[in-house]
Amino acid sequence: MKQRIKQSFICQDIKQYQTNQTLVDTHVPTVGDVAVFEVLSIGKHKTIQGTDKRLVTILPGDRIMAAFGTRYATAQFEGYVPGGICPEYHILGAGGTVGLVASSHSRFASAGPTTLKLVGWVTNAQGDVWNTIRQKEQLMKPFTGAISHSTRVILSVGSSMDSGKTTTAAKMVQGFSEAGYRVAFIKLTGTIYTKDCDLVYDHGAAEVADFGLLGYPSTYLCTATQLLGLYETLMHHIKAQDKAFVVIEIADGLYQRETEMLLRNRAFMNGIDAVVYSAGDSLSAIQGYQVLRDMHIVPVALSGLFTASPLLVKEVSERLYSPVLSIDELARGVLMQYLEMPMSVSAS
Fold first, then answer.
1. Which residues pair with 66 in a beta bridge?
2. pTM
3. What per-residue string of b and e applies to 193-206 under the rule 16 or more CB within 10 Å gives b?
4. Which residues of 29-52 are buried (b: 16+ CB within 10 A; e: fewer)?
5. 175 vs 185: CA distance, rounded Å
6. Hey, which residues does 99 pair with through a beta bridge?
């Protein structure tokens, strides 16, 4: 009996394909290349997200379909696409991103990554290795920035991974939506996994989208041109011109490569109406605020994990001018009264 292949979310568009085993020892992977793997051992990832978004349990001996990609996740894995043929590979992200782990958070040191063996390349009718990015490249629009001027664009950034930016984005969307506005959400950077988009959709977003729409297993190490193209394309996809607000989340922290590239990109920031900054504690809130000021960006408000502690809120409020809003205040739409505040400051 033919063994069932558990297809990961990044491979959701692959319906008809062949599995080519003759290329296993010769084809060097690139970002977006799709293959079938045998699960050798279970480490951090015990499940993958299937094409229907369901978390699918994986076991040693299972065969899964996934795509090569990179990952930057300070609380999880740093990983890359190898430059040659390897005896085994690692699951970098549950949405189906595979590569080689370069470093990991200490909490995963004992378990390690889930390991895989490549058993065959997924090929199309022409015999070419299926690449999720190339398959969608005709959808990519060149960056103009014009569409951002037809709506109010709010950017959610944070001090680090797990600082509360997605919850901040979700609560902003809830506040706008309950006030009667049509709102959309874009997760512009990160590693493929629908959890964040699903959370914000459940909080009232009319439309949600992320970089996976264009076939990207992750955005780590993307060029500025690619990032801006993703932004333009996703803004068109969610019909930004028909929304009162578009909330955009950029993954990880202010020092992360793609985050810093976008924040320092004048063309991108010219289309942003306000920035909301999330942090985990008072020191990261204050220091991150200063980092943004050095980029000539003044957050319209601060939020994130630190707002769960009245003492941390007090420490920040005594030292900064920007308002500090809890997630409950964001959900009640309090942010709207601050949206006329200027975001940029003049270079000193």
1. 35
2. 0.95
3. bbebbebbbebbbb
4. bebbbbbbbbbeebbbbeebbbbe
5. 13
6. 90
DSSP 207-239: EEEEGGGGT-SB-TT--HHHHHHHHHHHHHHTT
What pLDDT, in 10s, does the model give residues 85-106?
999 999 999 999 999 999 999 9
Confidence tier at 2 by pLDDT (50, 70, 90): low
The half-sphere exposure of 65 on its side-chain side, counting CA atoms within 13 A, is 28
Amino acid identity, residue 173? Answer: V
**What domains can you pick out in the chain, each with its CATH number?**
5-134 (no CATH), 140-338 (3.40.50.300)
* Cβ atoms 96, 9 nearer than 8 A: yes
Tell me whether strands 152-158 and 115-123 are parallel, antiparallel or unpaired.
unpaired
The letter for the amino acid at 84 is G
H helix intervals, the chain: 132-136, 165-178, 195-202, 224-237, 257-263, 266-269, 282-294, 310-317, 327-331
- Per-residue confidence band for 343, with pLDDT thresholds at 50, 70 and 90: low
Q: Are 126 and 20 in contact (CB under 8 A)?
A: no
